[in-house]
Amino acid sequence: MRQDTRLSRLLHVLLHMAETDQPLTSQDIAAMLGSNAVVVRRIMAGLRDDGYVAAERGHGGGWRLVRRAEEITLADIYRSLGAPELFAFGLSNPAPDCLVERSVNATMDETIAAATAALMAKFTEIRLSDIQSDVAARRTRVAAGQEPR
Amino acid sequence: MRQDTRLSRLLHVLLHMAETDQPLTSQDIAAMLGSNAVVVRRIMAGLRDDGYVAAERGHGGGWRLVRRAEEITLADIYRSLGAPELFAFGLSNPAPDCLVERSVNATMDETIAAATAALMAKFTEIRLSDIQSDVAARRTRVAAGQEPR
DNA sequence: GAATCAAGTAACATACAAAGTATCTTGATA
DNA sequence: TATCAAGATACTTTGTATGTTACTTGATTC
């Protein structure tokens, strides 16, 4: 199944936004992502509505981060995307007549609920600033020739 | 994103197969699933190749379970499906030049790896026989009028 | 051995959501 | 007034599970 890359793309974008005071235009961001300015506006809209970024129009406009990297978790970003489906698998029929299928659904629902809770806990733990630390460490390794440029 | 319902469908089918000695034809199974005989053969092929079910052709043919319900876990079924993608989200670019994106990928990979391990552990714990117990309990509740027929 | 049944297989069609694209509007700045 | 950039709308593309048709292979029954 084709995968939803919005969360990963937003992390990438937000980290670049955190590294500069200059507003980034949708076009700039699209170039970073190998994508399209309209797609960028589409995936950024939720973050704007939730107050993590601000967009300004006209000359010198673009997107800015308006919260500190310590204050934004992966869970925040995920929710701003509208909390899309996390799992590639799911029930065939959510409300079947067949009793056997109802038991299958109950088992799957329980499994999915537990996995969702675990994943959301992880998302809540990870702050943008944690990834910034990883970037800094990676830059050091690259400078030391321990990781390809 | 549209979801992969093969795992859930196979559980449903295998439990019905476990309840009878009669072989079930692909057509019978398709009717249970509200699907198509060709789709059934497609999703059952892996289980046949892995020795969990057997298919026989001709008169009186069809699919039979050839392992006990205690001997089949959700993980077995998942693997027989070819271990399809578990998560609906993923990386945008698996091998980026951008250092920031590499850190994003590292973070996401780690999160996904942990969630995969947890989910597979759960899949390994759940046997077909566990769901059979739930079906039995559900039948009792339905007979007592505690759950809709 | 002819008819029938059912799995095996191949090729093609459909559905659907993320992603991509084109075009226009709104608002801000130079 | 021209230009820039977000906002918004409508449409297209893409990839994968699923659905469908048609044909082949193999087994059973009469």
From TrEMBL, chains A, B:
Pfam families with a match to the protein in the record: Rrf2 (PF02082)
GO molecular function: DNA-binding transcription factor activity
Coiled coil segments of this chain: none
SUPFAM superfamilies documented for this protein: Winged helix' DNA-binding domain
Entry GO CC: cytosol
PANTHER family per the UniProt record, alphabetical: HTH-TYPE TRANSCRIPTIONAL REGULATOR YWGB-RELATED, WINGED HELIX-TURN-HELIX TRANSCRIPTIONAL REGULATOR, RRF2 FAMILY
Protein name: Rrf2 family transcriptional regulator
